[in-house]
Design a protein that fits this description.
By secondary structure, this protein is of the alpha+beta class. It is about 20% helix and about 25% strand.
């Protein structure tokens, strides 16, 4: 991916909207977002909702950094961070080198991932450096099926709603 393929880059965040380019491995029409692990998670979600990138809108308001929510595979209202992760770039302290994991290698489970592994001294084995997300584009969510979110929104299970409506409902607004 060349520099000309990147759009709307900012400190700690690279956004690639060229998902339909020839020989690109990104799903057509998707947006690939590479976030520095120290970026505040909710800032990523806020940007995603504002730009029309779906897949993380129900994860609004989660505290911590991109590393924190990825390490814990945070979830809320039927969405999990792991649903959007493509890869995680780390520093592996046990072998003192960089290592990148594809989503399938992250061992995501409810509230956990391989990135919670500890060394003998109790420190975390992996220092997360960058998390790459793949987000669909659109104005409406996927069908809302989480009972609590359905109730907050006042919609029927399976309805699709505007992204910003979900964010406001999750944040209590």
């Amino acid at each position: 991916m060349g520099a000309s393929d990147l759009t709307r880059a900012s400190a700690g965040l690279r956004v690639d909207t060229t998902g339909c380019s020839v020989d690109d491995l990104v799903y057509c029409g998707a947006v690939q977002v590479a976030a520095d692990s120290s970026e505040p998670w909710d800032g990523i979600v806020e940007r995603a909702v504002a730009e029309g990138w779906l897949g993380v809108e129900a994860l609004s308001g989660l505290p911590g950094s991109v590393a924190d929510v990825t390490r814990a595979n945070a979830s809320a209202y039927g969405q999990s961070v792991s649903d959007a992760v493509v890869s995680v770039r780390t520093w592996d302290r046990s072998v003192d080198r960089q290592r990148t994991f594809a989503a399938v290698e992250c061992d995501f489970g409810p509230g956990s991932s391989r990135f919670t592994e500890q060394l003998a001294d109790g420190s975390l084995r992996y220092d997360l450096r960058e998390v790459t997300l793949l987000l669909k584009q659109g104005d409406l969510t996927t069908p809302v099926r989480d009972d609590a979110l359905v109730a907050r929104l006042g919609v029927a299970s399976g309805d699709r709603v505007p992204l910003d409506l979900v964010r406001r409902a999750v944040l209590g607004g």
